[in-house]
């Protein structure tokens, strides 16, 4: 069997809030995610899921334990390599979209290509391809303030896909959307998973959304209390 895309062993995360006080958020998390899985990590506010997401996304480091991403020991990586992984191997989708307000949809999608050596013409073609994929090609020239919440999130998904990442990490991607628009965004994730074989990790507090995924990992007070099949 091939190496899991994500393999975490005994992950502990502590924050130091002044001596001698320390706050332990994650208490020995063990988690594996295989290539092509669609997994949701569910938990109430304060359960530790955002902290775990930051470690999975190589945005933060664990205090103790091991994390292997695509077989590579993340802890031994230089900051430069970690930055490249965030840019190339993981596509991030956030609740608040994180779009540049003064840039139009096309330029927002092109942001991860800033470090690419591809010619700008090719970058624009690639970005348009991504916008067309999420049904936003006709809105390429619109700025975020001219788009609805659902349209902004579709632009954000196009941006996450521009470098053809192995993993899509979505943090409450429907949290700022109404129910109908949220389901449309979830349909996009299903398409990326089923048609392109992407590994999708969805962070959510919604049991309803989690039920749409293949596997549900439940966090409570910094520990995994359940890991079971979802509704898909």
From the alpha carbons, calculate the radius of gyration and give it in angstroms.
18 Å
Count the DSSP helices.
7
Helix fraction bin: 25-40%
End-to-end CA span: 23 Å
Please provide the ordered H/E string of secondary-structure elements: EEEHEEHEHHHEHEHEE
How many β-strand runs?
A: 10
Structural class: alpha/beta
The CATH architecture of the domain at 35-49 and 83-229 would be: 3-Layer(aba) Sandwich
- Let me know the average pLDDT: 92
Polypeptide structure, described:
This protein is of the alpha/beta class and 232 residues long. The chain has a domain at 35-49 and 83-229: P-loop containing nucleotide triphosphate hydrolases (Rossmann fold), CATH 3.40.50. The chain is 31% helix and 28% strand. It contains seven helices and ten strands. It has helices spanning 49-56, 79-88, 105-110, 120-133, 149-161, 179-196, 207-210, and strands spanning 6-16, 22-33, 38-42, 64-69, 72-73, 90-94, 167-171, 199-204, 215-220, 223-229. It has a six-stranded mixed β-sheet, sandwiched between helices. The protein has a four-stranded antiparallel β-sheet with strand order 2-1-4-5, with helices on one face. β4 and β5 (72-73) form a beta hairpin. α5 runs parallel beside α6 (179-196).
How would you describe this structure in keywords?
single chain, 232 residues, alpha/beta, Rossmann fold, 4-stranded antiparallel sheet, 7 helices, 31% helix, globular
Give me a quick take on this structure:
With 232 residues, this protein is α/β, with parallel strands linked by helices.
Secondary structure layout:
Blueprint: E1 6-16, E2 22-33, E3 38-42, H1 49-56, E4 64-69, E5 72-73, H2 79-88, E6 90-94, H3 105-110, H4 120-133, H5 149-161, E7 167-171, H6 179-196, E8 199-204, H7 207-210, E9 215-220, E10 223-229
